[in-house]
Design a protein that fits this description.
The structure is a single chain. By secondary structure, this protein is an all-alpha fold. The protein is elongated and about 75 Å long. The two termini are about 40 Å apart. The relative contact order is 0.18. It comes from Sporosarcina psychrophila. Keywords: Membrane, Transmembrane, Transmembrane helix. This is ABC-type multidrug transport system fused ATPase/permease subunit.
């Protein structure tokens, strides 16, 4: 299943759940919109953290702290001289393929709950 059809199936399922709740049990529409809001916010938060890690934001902190602690420790400097390490730092970049799914779904659930809440407030519940 490709990415677009998976995202489309989640969106259609969410609309079906929302509209069936509106017509079958309208008193639970606020609870459903709250649930969509929480799902959207959590997915956007997780996606943001994964994006920060994927872009290598913490790599400089890790490399600088290793360099700092190795200059403080004379034993570490001797070990690096004996092993012949020239101080090259490994890259800590990581790819998250789920990031392509998390952001659009989080944005969809967030916007769906926002629009649904605005409509609910305007119609007077």
């Amino acid at each position: 299943m490709n990415k677009k059809s998976l995202l489309l199936s989640f969106c259609i399922t969410s609309f079906v759940i929302l509209f069936s709740t509106v017509f079958m049990a309208p008193k639970y529409i606020i609870i459903l919109l709250d649930l969509f809001f929480y799902i959207g916010i959590i997915m956007l938060l997780i996606g943001s953290v994964l994006l920060i890690i994927q872009d290598g934001f913490f790599t400089r902190f890790i490399n600088n702290s290793r360099r700092f602690y190795s200059t403080l420790s004379k034993r570490e400097q001797v070990i690096q001289d004996v092993e012949g390490k020239n101080g090259e730092n490994p890259s800590y970049l990581k790819q998250f393929p789920l990031l392509a799914y998390i952001f659009p779904l989080g944005a969809f659930y967030f916007s769906l709950s926002l629009i649904g809440s605005l409509i609910t407030v305007q119609l007077g519940r």
